[in-house]
Amino acid sequence: MDNLIRKIRDEQGIKLYIDWHSYSQLILYPFGHKETLYAPELGMWTKAAALMSDTIRYYSTNATTYVFGPSGATLYPTTGASIDHVYTIGRAKFSMTIELPDTGDFGFVLPPERIRPAAEEQWVGQQVILQLLDEEFFDGDGPAIGALGTTW
């Protein structure tokens, strides 16, 4: 993976990397290996994750709430997280793990009737992050208007 990340970084750059997991309803970003280590982009990532979470909660049929924050502080410290690697080596603007819906009722295997709603609410969240990729935001000048009409 390391060679591929370096190649993509050098040839075209990396704007967004998402490592999808199940379950816990989380939006996580670097760093994972220490609870008290925070990247300089923490504010930008937190605001982006808040927009994603709010939009998903508003538009999802299940009113799913996603908790968000640095991986090590929000979930637990871990080593070898791909989001840390793609952020530090790949220099990704956004590098996140999204833990899909469920907080313990079904665990790692959602029942068939929950799969489509999970995909649909994730698409709503992805539209938010994709809109933000091209914006210069959180510098006090850009609009950064969320899907709910919230201006950050």
What does the model show?
By secondary structure, the protein is of the alpha/beta class. The protein has one domain (2-101, 112-133): Aminopeptidase (3-Layer(aba) Sandwich), CATH 3.40.630. The protein contains five helices and four strands; from the N terminus they run H-E-E-H-E-H-H-E-H. It has helices spanning 2-11, 42-59, 71-74, 82-88, 112-133; strands at 16-22, 26-29, 67-70, 94-100. It has a four-stranded mixed β-sheet, with helices on both faces. Helix 2 links the parallel strand 2 and strand 3 (67-70). It is globular, with a radius of gyration of 15 Å.
Tell me briefly what this model is.
With 152 residues, this protein is an alpha/beta fold. Helix content is 40%, strand content 14%.
Write the layout of secondary structure elements.
Blueprint: H1 2-11, E1 16-22, E2 26-29, H2 42-59, E3 67-70, H3 71-74, H4 82-88, E4 94-100, H5 112-133
Parallel strand pairs: 1-4, 2-3
Antiparallel strand pairs: 2-4
Helix pairs in contact: 2-5
Q: Give the number of domains.
A: 1
Shape: globular
What is the rounded distance between the termini?
A: 35 Å
As a whole number of angstroms, the C-alpha radius of gyration is: 15 Å
The chain-level structural class is: alpha/beta
> Strand order across the biggest sheet?
1-4-2-3
Unreliably modeled segments: none
Superfamily at the CATH H level? Answer: Zn peptidases
CATH fold topology: Aminopeptidase
Can you write the helix and strand succession as a string? HEEHEHHEH
Helix content: 40-55%
The CATH architecture category equals 3-Layer(aba) Sandwich
| Structure annotation, total helices | 5
Total strand segments: 4
Mean pLDDT: 86
Please report which band the strand proportion falls in: under 5%, 5-15%, 15-25%, 25-35%, 35-45% or over 45%.
5-15%
Q: Mind describing the biggest β-sheet?
A: 4 strands, mixed
Q: Which CATH class applies here?
A: Alpha Beta
